[in-house]
Amino acid sequence: MAIERTLSIIKPDATRRNLTGKIAAKFEEAGLRIVASKRIHLSLAQAQAFYGVHKDRPFFGELTEFMASEPVVVQVLEGEGAIAKNREVMGATNPANAADGTIRKEFALSMGENSVHGSDAAETAAVEIAFFFSGLELVG
Ligand code: ADP
Ligand code: MG
User: Fold this and answer.
1) Which residues line ligand 1 (CB under 6 A)?
2) How far is CA 64 from the centre of its chain?
3) Residue 140 has pLDDT above 90, yes or no
4) 18 CA distance to ligand 2 middle (Å)
5) Closest C-alpha among 6, 110, 20 to residue 70
6) Atom of ligand 1 nearest to the CA of 66
7) pTM higher than 0.85 for the full model?
8) Terminal alpha carbon distance of the chain
């Protein structure tokens, strides 16, 4: 399998509860390398732009207000099959359905406040990484 890069966001429910390190450890334990990382506070407009694909969904307002409510940590994860591997480590969107040992099973509070975002395909990973990072900031 090819070496890939994927975008991860540690969401406000997790940064608020001081879970940044525990979540980063899950990525590293799974063999994903954190090749870029920064803590930022998204504006509402930035959150709306990032989640534009969901703009017609009923939860769009709740999601974007939540993502802009407190700081997040955006990271680029690199490794063999990193996009699918990260989705595996994250667990299902709804923590009630997430497998044991996954980030969302251990830490998520609800379907909305579910601790992490991860890109879902190669095309979205490329767009999402470029949304937050310049090439100079990716240090493999
Ligand atoms: P994932 O983050 O697992 O890729 P989606 O892309 O479907 O999930 O949704 C993006 C984010 O929107 C979810 O992680 C979650 O924070 C929020 N969300 C999704 N569905 C709901 C819902 N029914 N109610 C509230 N928030 C939701
Ligand atoms: Mg998604």
Assistant:
1) 54, 59, 62-63, 93, 111-112, 114, 117, 120
2) 14
3) no
4) 23
5) 20
6) 16
7) yes
8) 18
